[in-house]
Write a structure and sequence with these properties.
This protein is mainly alpha-helical. It has one domain. The chain contains six helices and no strands. The chain has helices at about 5-30, 30-55, 55-75, 80-95, 110-125, 130-155.
Length: about 160
């Protein structure tokens, strides 16, 4: 079964979420690296069209799928751990309530997910022995997310 068409895989994802695309990839017998490449193609398509027709929940779901696949196949490959680190950081930033062009308001669950992604990023950066500047960036987001979270909780 052919698995390389990003448009088709994106349709599976939009119809049935990460479970739909994982089910399709299972049928294709794609190995870990190929699965990650295909999931990444869908993540990039979602990122490119996010403002037009996708939700924060969908964006979060595909990021989490890519992060999980990266970590699942990483073994001793630090580049895959680094990939999960970058995606975790970007996910936490995407979920932050700081974007002036945001079309979708952030909810409490987005703040929880943002803090979780930032904490995972911190853990991965420690594992990768990142320098203090990289750690500071992740700590800054964790603190910022907590401030945003406290603000939203007071307003709800």
């Amino acid at each position: 079964m052919e698995c390389s068409h990003q448009e088709e895989l994106t349709k599976y994802f939009l119809a049935d979420g990460i479970a739909g695309i994982q089910n399709h990839l299972d049928k294709c017998n794609a190995d870990g690296n190929e699965r990650l490449r295909l999931l990444e193609s869908v993540r990039k398509a979602i990122d490119a069209t996010y403002i037009d027709d996708h939700t924060l929940d969908r964006m979060q779901e595909i990021y989490e799928g890519c992060i999980a696949e990266s970590l699942r196949i990483a073994d001793d490959d630090e580049s895959l751990v680094q990939h999960a680190n970058v995606l975790s950081y970007n996910l936490s930033a995407n979920l932050a309530d700081c974007w002036v062009d945001a079309v979708e308001p952030r909810s409490v669950k987005h703040f929880y997910a943002g803090v979780f992604a930032a904490k995972r990023c911190l853990s991965l950066r420690k594992q990768l022995n990142k320098p203090p500047a990289a750690m500071a960036m992740a700590y800054f987001y964790t603190g910022s997310a907590r401030v945003f979270f406290a603000t939203i909780c007071r307003s709800e």
